[in-house]
Amino acid sequence: MNRILTYLVKDGLPITFIVFYCVGLALYLIPFTHELFIQITPYTLVLVAVAIFSHHKEWSPKVIGVLAGIFLLSFITEVIGVATGKLFGTYVYGEGLGFKIADVPLIIGLNWMFLTYASNSIISKYTSKNIPIIVGAALLMVLYDILLEKVAPLMDMWAFLRNDPPVSNYVVWFLMALAFNWAIQKFKIDTQNRPARWLFFIQIGFFVIIAIYNEY
Length: 216
Fold this sequence. Notes:
This protein has helices at residues 2-10, 15-29, 34-53, 61-84, 107-124, 130-151, 167-186, 194-215; strands spanning 91-93, 100-101, 104-105, 158-160. By secondary structure, the protein is mostly helical. Strands 1-4 form a two-stranded antiparallel ribbon. Helix 4 packs antiparallel against helix 7 (167-186) and helix 5 crosses helix 8 (194-215). It is globular, with a radius of gyration of 17 Å. The two termini are 30 Å apart. The model has no long low-confidence stretch (mean pLDDT 90).
């Protein structure tokens, strides 16, 4: 067990992330603190994003521009999606993601930015070819979304009018993920960030536990 833990730490797994999400899971599962969990979720997402991007190796105007572009374009697309119901389907955001502009939480842009960066980091660890990275990272983001859609209503993030998101939701997710990862590759943004990769999988584990808890 100690050898495994040592290996994971050397591979960039921040133990603080595990502790952080275990505390969050406890807050969610305990009825007395469930509402507190909902209230602090936006702040914790910002905190972990700052922690992740603090490990980015080379900051430059190009990097900032690409990440800011992902933030803005994803947020604008979400605003259009909520207002029209034409892109992702008919859905509304709850209170779990905090402050909203035009009925869309501002933090949603940060979420898209992190997911693009982290998924790109994961796939680019195994290949340096652009097309496999772009397509592979986009598929990974869609798989992440499939799970997230199950727990988002439970965490008061968002909910679809008919409970289950339509196919168009995943199609648009995939197309946006393709575009954002294309930008990462086009501008040669180095996403080699071990904590980012680990956080991606820690979040998946977190969502799986919540989904199983509510299912059974």
